[in-house]
């Protein structure tokens, strides 16, 4: 009898976490690694949020929380959706989970049957495809390119739809490309989807506030898409609360109740102290964390300028998140310092070995010609990292 299940044996390891682990190993060996692989703000959680957590501890919040979240946290989420997105939800449409990743896992589990197809514009976040495959679904990749800022067109969406299409999953702002769908672009996709009333949309908006162009748009804002859209969000990125592990959804009630049922058997309610702190985070104006977004924009402009000075890196201008996703296919087929570069994975490992800079290859995101570089690092680290990369490839 086989010890491990086919399910786990067929699952890919998270590429971002794998590279982070490799970088940690090299650091422990004494190597001076600059990590530009993880999607984690390098800011501390704001003091006003930490103070709310301390108060919750002193107020003796130490018991199991409701599976789908405290009632006053759900009210804070409802207020946030209305204030920031113009979306109206009721408490029965909200489910709080242990990070937005669990929110996505819940959705995949409760909505995917064997053979169901899920359309994913490439590039997409690394875990999307495996969450769908874990539940016997079929990821359908829609290729995009740097020429279109890595955004799917209505024509591409229409061409990807089949009688087996169950959902479309995408993020805006996008991890890894930083692309943002405008209201007009979302409306174009919605105009296709209205012809297929059984297709649901999973809109991952975890980077919503890390936006350099303003005017964040949500698919659920359209009346004809509201009842078919699951909006996923959380506090990890905008509030620098990655380790607090709080994510949430606003969804049609039937889907929200199903996610609540699933979560009740898997993890139950999210961390009680983190939930109390999240109430404070969401009730405050997003302007309280604008200083982080301003600094990320400075870093974006810095890294784009430095990449522009290196032959072989083809970049566009990301509008949000904290990543650049350059096309590095120029290097394919070349040999650099004894390393044969056949693909983006080879190039990423070359940079780790020769430049001591950790990045993530684009293949895991559905685009094998690109490389994800996070600029959630200090300006000094970015300057040093790009100096090393330039020296390595020249």
Automatic annotation (TrEMBL):
Matching entries from Pfam families are given as: Aminotran_1_2
Q: Which residue range or ranges hold the Aminotransferase class I/classII large domain?
A: 31-389
Organism domain of life: Bacteria
Does Thylakoid show up as a keyword for this record? no
Q: Which cofactor does it need?
A: pyridoxal 5'-phosphate
Under which EC number(s) is this enzyme classified? 2.6.1.-
Does this entry carry the keyword Ribonucleoprotein? no
Q: What is an example of a GO molecular function annotated in this UniProt entry? A: transaminase activity
Q: Which UniProt keywords apply?
A: Aminotransferase, Pyridoxal phosphate, Transferase
InterPro entries attached to this UniProt entry: Aminotransferase_I/II_large, AspAT/PAT-like, NHTrfase_class1_PyrdxlP-BS, PyrdxlP-dep_Trfase, PyrdxlP-dep_Trfase_major, PyrdxlP-dep_Trfase_small
Q: Which family does it belong to?
A: Belongs to the class-I pyridoxal-phosphate-dependent aminotransferase family.
What name has this protein been given in UniProt? Aminotransferase
């Amino acid at each position: 009898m086989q010890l491990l299940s086919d399910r786990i044996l067929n699952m890919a390891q998270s590429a971002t976490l794998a590279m982070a682990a490799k970088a940690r190993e090299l650091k422990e060996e004494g190597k001076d690694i600059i990590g530009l692989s993880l999607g984690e703000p390098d800011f501390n959680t704001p003091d006003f949020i930490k103070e709310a957590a301390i108060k919750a501890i002193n107020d003796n919040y130490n018991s199991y929380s409701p599976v789908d979240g405290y009632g006053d946290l759900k009210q804070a989420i409802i207020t946030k959706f209305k204030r920031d997105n113009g979306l109206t939800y009721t408490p029965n449409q909200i489910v709080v989970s242990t990070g937005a990743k669990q929110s996505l896992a819940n959705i995949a589990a409760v909505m995917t049957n064997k053979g169901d197809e899920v359309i994913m514009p490439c590039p997409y976040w690394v875990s999307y495809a495996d969450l769908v495959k874990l539940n016997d679904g079929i990821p359908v990749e829609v290729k995009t390119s740097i020429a279109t800022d890595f955004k799917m067109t209505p024509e591409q969406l229409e061409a990807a739809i089949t009688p087996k299409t169950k959902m479309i999953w995408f993020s805006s702002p996008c991890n890894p490309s930083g692309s943002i769908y405008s209201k007009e672009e979302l409306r174009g996709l919605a105009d296709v989807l209205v012809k297929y009333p059984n297709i649901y949309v999973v809109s991952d908006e975890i980077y919503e506030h890390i936006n350099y162009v303003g005017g964040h748009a949500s698919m659920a804002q359209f009346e004809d898409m509201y009842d078919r859209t699951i909006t996923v969000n959380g506090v990890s990125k905008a509030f620098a609360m990655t380790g607090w592990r709080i994510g949430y959804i606003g969804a049609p009630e039937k889907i929200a109740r199903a996610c609540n049922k699933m979560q009740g058997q898997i993890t139950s309610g999210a961390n009680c102290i983190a939930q109390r702190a999240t109430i404070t985070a969401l009730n405050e104006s997003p302007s309280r964390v604008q200083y982080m977004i301003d600094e990320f924009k400075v870093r974006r402009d810095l890294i784009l300028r430095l990449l522009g000075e290196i032959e072989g890196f083809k970049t566009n201008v990301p509008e949000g998140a904290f990543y650049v996703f350059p096309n590095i296919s120029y290097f394919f087929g070349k040999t650099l310092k004894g390393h044969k570069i056949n693909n983006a994975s080879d190039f990423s490992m070359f940079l780790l070995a020769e430049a001591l800079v950790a990045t993530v290859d684009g293949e895991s995101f559905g685009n094998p010609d690109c490389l994800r570089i996070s600029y959630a690092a200090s300006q000094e680290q970015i300057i040093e990292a790009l100096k090393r990369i330039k020296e390595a490839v020249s």
